[in-house]
Design brief:
It is a single chain. The chain is α+β, with helices and mostly antiparallel strands. It has one domain: Outer membrane efflux proteins (OEP) (Up-down Bundle), CATH 1.20.1600.10. It is 61% helix and 13% strand. The chain contains eleven helices and six strands. A hairpin with a 2-residue loop joins strand 5 and strand 6. The longest helix has 67 residues. 30% of the residues are buried.
Length: 484
């Protein structure tokens, strides 16, 4: 009996040794990171004036404590970041599942049954049967053609993609908070300018009313002054409503109570000034600098691995199974015990499936081609965004200087016109025209100052932010029980 068992065990290991070399016969193609064609250098003018700062901790270089606090509050509890974290947890679970496919599976079952039968009389006495059984089953699928290896690669690429997506969500959230904050500061400055214009027009209307009652001014002048005052009041109300709308947007982003947010914004001192950073890197650097492009590339790697999974499913699969069992039977006090065991390989051959496996492979390849085209298109869009941000930044910088000089001249012109009007040498219509030009010039200065800051933020985001420099130190805050 012992020799027979040894012979069966020999056959088992003989099968194993014959099959294991087949595990190296992988049909999976090696993934090669694509290199989309990009321009050799930027065509738009690069910002060069002022001090050049590093991208790392760029927001803090604004030297605006209110902005820093808003950014911190936004990232404490953000639905977009929570979604990104949940996606990371799903991807981690997929990695664990893929790893488990290459590990032997071991299960155990046990049962206890008791039954009673018979008539309970002399002719047919009752009988009691008690059965106890325990079994241990094991199975192990050998990765003959690389299917499980490809599944692990796909799961790993997906996890890397989701981690990068969390960084991308942080970058997008920070840029959105900063944009709304800058727009609010510009709105505030515009409201102050419009308030001064309203106060000036109100005073003009008051003086015109006094002059009209004394008979020195025509009633039409008074009507014009009062109409201009009401129009200025309406414009001011619209501007204040716009500022309130931006506050609502910041409440949504930061989850701060509105009274607390208004108190925080009241501590600010106007438009923040961003630090300049070096943009001399080549366009090809965007492939690794921008998180969205890095996500595209990882999705492409996952799709490539999924092709391998689909291809390997068209080849045979080999599983090794084994079972050990113990059974105890008690029949009216008579106890019998039996042991059982079994082991051996199972080979599964896909002979006919109606074309399902080939269709799955074709679908996987088409998905790869689609993601590759998307990646190439996103690279072009990324280069375009940087180029446009550089053009807009250069334009906003030069226009801000021109508008500032223009506003100074219009201010002097209005002062001269006002003095001339008070002395009776200029009619009210000409005065209001001078005032309108002065107000428009002041608002244009604020707009271009705002645009300059916004274009720096747009360039920062288009350039990929600082996630590449900080990804080793800033990581998704997963719960300890979720770490592996």
């Amino acid at each position: 009996m012992r020799n027979d068992k040894h012979g069966q065990a020999y056959q088992y290991w003989r099968w194993l040794l014959l099959c294991l070399p087949l595990a190296s016969c992988s049909v999976i193609d090696e993934y090669i990171r694509p290199k989309p064609v990009t321009a050799e250098q930027w065509q738009a003018p690069l910002p060069h004036s002022g001090s050049v700062a590093a991208l790392t901790d760029w927001w803090a270089q604004f030297n605006d404590p209110v902005l820093n606090q808003l950014l911190g509050e936004a990232q404490k509890e953000s639905p977009s970041l929570e979604i990104a974290l949940a996606n990371i947890r799903v991807a981690r679970a997929n990695v664990l599942s893929a790893r488990a496919q290459g590990i032997p599976d071991l299960t155990s079952t046990g049962s206890v049954t008791k039954s009673k039968g018979g008539g309970g009389n002399a002719a047919f006495p009752s009988s009691t049967i008690e059965i106890d059984s325990v079994s241990l089953d094991a199975s192990w699928e050998i990765d003959l053609f690389g299917k499980m290896k490809a599944a692990k690669q796909a799961a790993k690429a997906q996890l890397e993609s989701k981690k990068i997506a969390w960084h991308d969500a942080r970058l997008t959230l920070a840029a959105e908070v900063a944009n709304n904050y800058v727009n609010y500061r510009a709105c505030q400055a515009s409201a102050q300018a419009l308030q001064q214009a309203y106060d000036s027009r109100y005073e003009t209307a008051r003086l015109t009313g006094i002059s009209a009652k004394a008979g020195f001014s025509a009633p039409s002048d008074l009507a014009l002054a009062e109409a201009a005052t009401r129009a200025s009041e309406s414009t001011l109300d619209g501007q204040q409503a716009e500022c309130d709308g931006l506050i609502k947007a910041l409440v949504e982003l930061t989850n701060l109570p509105e009274p607390a947010l208004r108190d925080l914004l009241a501590k600010g001192k106007g438009m923040p000034e961003p630090a300049m950073f070096d943009v001399s890197a080549l366009p090809a650097n965007l492939l690794t600098r921008r998180p969205d492009l890095a996500i595209d590339e990882r999705n492409l790697a996952e799709a490539s691995a999924n092709i391998g999974v689909s291809k390997a499913q068209m080849y045979p699969s080999l599983s090794l199974t084994g079972s050990i069992g113990y059974r105890r039977t008690n029949f009216n006090g008579t106890v019998t015990r039996t042991d059982s065991w079994s082991y051996g390989p199972t080979l599964k051959l896909p002979i006919f499936d109606g074309g399902t496996l080939r269709a799955d492979l074709a679908e996987a390849r088409a998905n790869f081609d689609s993601l590759l085209a998307t990646y190439k298109q996103d690279v072009r869009s990324a280069v375009k965004e940087v180029e446009q941000a550089l053009v807009n930044l250069d334009s906003a910088t030069r226009r801000a200087q021109s508008e500032q000089a223009s506003a100074q001249q219009y201010q002097q012109y209005f002062k001269a016109a006002e003095i001339n009007w008070k002395s009776g040498g200029l009619d009210l219509l000409s005065l209001e025209d001078a005032r309108r030009q002065k107000i428009n010039a002041e608002l244009n200065v604020i707009t271009q100052q705002k645009n300059r800051v916004l274009q720096w933020i747009a360039l920062y985001k288009a350039f990929g932010g600082d996630w590449l420099e900080t990804q080793k130190t800033v990581k998704p805050p997963l719960k300890p029980m979720e770490k592996r």
